[in-house]
User: Fold this.
Amino acid sequence: MNLEAHEWKGVTVFPLEGRLDGNNATTAEQAFLQLLAEGKQQFIFDFSELQYISSAGLRVVLVAAKKLRASKGRMVCACLGEQVYDVFEMSGFTNILEMAATKEEALEKLGAAH
Assistant:
């Protein structure tokens, strides 16, 4: 899994690809926590290349959301494929997390598209 985040119009894009499961959830969480420690506060979690997410993967997303809420940061989950979206919906995540169909829409929700 490639977890190389990049800056886009003042927002940190955190790409998730392949499978986010018990094998790499800890790695993904550590990568996110490192970015948070560097002072990043606005995130787009880019799910466009993610084919599968397990409960361990969902936990990473939830930890990120809680940490950002505590530090007054924000995240938007963008570009979820149908299978990943279904898992989010069944888990109730679509009700508690900000969702966007595209990265551009996520950027607008974060108020950074200027």
Observations:
- The chain has a mean pLDDT of 95.
- The chain has one domain: 6-109.
- Residues 67 and 73 are 8 Å apart (CA to CA).
